[in-house]
């Protein structure tokens, strides 16, 4: 084997598979929203409740200051311990979580604050009570209202972008993903069990669904990939959070230059072009 | 999480199929002639079985008034998706040939008791009525047509959710269609959503649930997550009426349940209120 061929083989071997990226995106050591808030924000005033039913612990939001910029920050909340994860429902929001997020977005619009949305969820919670309280309606309402929101919306998928539960807070002027985050219409396991009739084919489904940041950038679904440190986000959370902060700040400056009518028109055009 | 739920396997009933129809809800055998005459409504349990999009158009539009738009927008394969059963492109081609439709929603203009509307009618035969790029594009263009003509948009949904074969592009159609609905909302153009069996997953979590008026057919399956997924998650059996139109009405997500035989008259009546302002402006 020639030297060149050996090097090529090595490069291929080093190339990480989509299924491996799924594991990294779900890694328990990956920074969660409380880490991002602590690392990115000089101030955070949590705002609770949807004013109709309750205060979903799976979705957190409030006023935040990032590098001197005042924003409305929100995102699904995963925990760092088993107890936290149980309390936060593993980052799977209920309808009142989406309604709380929408309430905060409307408040951001009223106060002229940009929205920064951090996405990390396996999906919206599939439970009996969630259905009874209208999980579908809550997500649908957010999609409809976010499309016309008269303030900039910056989205970063930091870990798992689980289907409609992710999209429910992800209709952004700019949508970014961390390098090893995933964003998908269905979990690879779910897709494999339906289309392959075999849940163990999840690696195949993960590849076919094109759920990595790199693929989604190529498809034009996201606008930017935020690089993670060597060894991925969990190996150096501080550096990862700093990279996210830098990217968010860059776009905050850019989007604030655009007048609101143009901003909303561009957001419409961007999503209208999806799949064309 | 399952966005696209496979329809329940039907029992093999080949020898009798030509003479009898079988209600999927109560398994009653109904003479096919009677079944057709009743517009696929079960005489015993009032279950409203699925209709093709063209049958639906014939049911609600004034005769000869419907004119298809966006026919050139058809199914595409942005991911070049291949699964265990083969290439999506082949499956899509076969579905187009089988149904004679270009996508899972038929769009067009027409009149209902003389009132001009723009229609979107989903067809479950087309890959389970799944929402994909072509579907989203047709719905967005239909909404833009409604906006331009200042005529109400009516969408009949029948869908298991987003089409997995187009992956993230299908997911984005939820945001895309809702962006179009937002425009109608801003412009004061009415949007009426009719949810038929089934309306679940990504379709219930997008345009189908945000009508000014949400209407459903009796006993239609309506919900977000699949029944099996929920049962596995909460580890308990769900009540029989869970995720039915009646359940959704009781929980405040529907304005009305309307029988097929009364759908046209009901829509016309609602449209006269909904277009009150539009008529004044003309
Ligand atoms: Zn029946």
Oligomer: heterodimer
Largest interface: A-B, 61 and 65 residues
CATH class term of the largest domain in chain B = Alpha Beta
Structural class of chain A: alpha/beta
Helix segment count of chain A?
Answer: 13
The CATH architecture name of the largest domain in chain B reads: Alpha-Beta Complex
Radius of gyration of chain B: 18 Å
The largest sheet of chain A is: 8 strands, mixed
Count of the domains of chain A: 1
Indicate the CATH topology of chain A: 2-enoyl-CoA Hydratase, Chain A, domain 1
Low-confidence stretches of chain B: 1-5
- For the record, the CATH architecture of chain A stands as Alpha-Beta Complex
Our estimate of the beta-strand percent of chain A is 15-25%
As residue ranges, the low-confidence spans of chain A are none
Tally of contiguous helical segments of chain B: 10
Helix-strand sequence of chain B: EEHHEEEHEEHEHEHEEHHEHH
Structurally, the number of domains of chain B stands at 2
Number of strands of chain A: 8
| Outline of chain B | globular
Can you characterise this structure?
The complex is a heterodimer of chains A (276) and B (282). By secondary structure, chain A is α/β, with parallel strands linked by helices. Chain A has a single domain, classed as 2-enoyl-CoA Hydratase, Chain A, domain 1. Chain A has helices at residues 3-14, 18-25, 33-40, 82-87, 95-111, 128-132, 135-147, 163-167, 188-195, 202-209, 213-218, 237-256, 260-272, and strands at 41-46, 59-66, 69-76, 115-121, 153-162, 174-178, 182-184, 224-226. In chain A, helix 2 packs across helix 10 (202-209). Chain A is globular. Chain B is an alpha/beta fold and 282 residues long. In chain B, helix 4 (133-149) runs parallel beside helix 5. In chain B, the strands form 3 sheets. In chain B, strands 3, 6, 7, 8, 9, 10, 11 and 12 form an 8-stranded mixed β-sheet that branches. A two-stranded antiparallel ribbon of chain B has the order 1-2. Chain B is globular, with a radius of gyration of 18 Å. Chain B folds into 2 domains: 14-47, no CATH class; 48-281, Alpha-Beta Complex (2-enoyl-CoA Hydratase, Chain A, domain 1). At the A-B interface, helix 6, helix 7, helix 8, helix 9 and helix 10 of A face strand 4, helix 4, helix 5, helix 6 and helix 7 of B. The structure holds zinc ion. Zinc ion binds next to loops of chain B.
